[in-house]
Amino acid sequence: HSVQVAEPDLLKACAGADVLLFVVPHQFIRKVCEQLKGHVKKGAVGMSLIKGVDEGPDGLRLISDIIHEKLGIEMSVLMGANIASEVAEEKFCETTIGCKNMKHGQMLKELMQTPNFRVSVVQEADTVELCGALKNVVAVGAGFCDGLGYGDNTKAAVIRLGLMEMIGFAKLFCKGPVTSSTFLESCGVADLITTCYGGRNRKVAEAFAKTGK
């Protein structure tokens, strides 16, 4: 029986770690990487659960690319329809690990999977990560629909068209292959649906459409 301890000291938490999970708001990732630099075990593997992209002087960049650049570790990502409170309550959900190295992908799957947390592994890591950011944009549109009282048919059209635009954007943005099947994983259509019906972005957009503030 393993005992899990919450360690507030970043350097103590990463000391000797074979696997590093990054779960911080995206605006803090550069600062976290600066603190970790030179303290990460050689050969360690990283996985980002951060849903977002970095907007800097060079345009949009994936968070995993920034971590890889700063720390020199191989990166994977985990994205899916995973509302944190429901995961904590052990309600069943699926998730997607995007990992270019399938050997590491299987290792991470074994580490993360439980009877209530079903993991699929795909190699299109960039597409998986991008889904986690773009679905929030579509959710804002879905929230406007709710706030303006347009109904479920209109909202379904916004979600479908939003998914098509996500696929189109990924094909322009990602360096590697982008296949439609990745969007049928939890990171794609499932996370999009969850966010468009229950997420914070939808809620804020609905309130804005109703009140104008």
Task: Give short descriptive properties of this protein.
single chain; 213 residues; alpha/beta; Rossmann fold; N-(1-d-carboxylethyl)-l-norvaline Dehydrogenase, domain 2; 2 domains; two-stranded antiparallel ribbon; 10 helices; 53% helix; globular
Polypeptide structure, described:
By secondary structure, this protein is α/β, with parallel strands linked by helices. It has two domains: 10-123, Rossmann fold; 127-211, Orthogonal Bundle (N-(1-d-carboxylethyl)-l-norvaline Dehydrogenase, domain 2), CATH 1.10.1040.10. The chain has ten helices and seven strands. The chain has helices at residues 10-14, 29-36, 63-71, 84-88, 102-112, 125-147, 151-173, 180-183, 186-198, 200-211, and strands at 19-22, 45-48, 53-56, 59-62, 74-79, 93-98, 117-122. It has a five-stranded mixed β-sheet with strand order 1-2-5-6-7, with helices on both faces. A hairpin with a 2-residue loop joins β3 (53-56) and β4 (59-62). The longest helix is centred in the middle third of the chain and has 23 residues, at 125-147. It is globular and about 55 Å long. It starts with 9 loop residues before the first helix and ends with a helix. Residues 126-211 form the Glycerol-3-phosphate dehydrogenase NAD-dependent C-terminal domain.
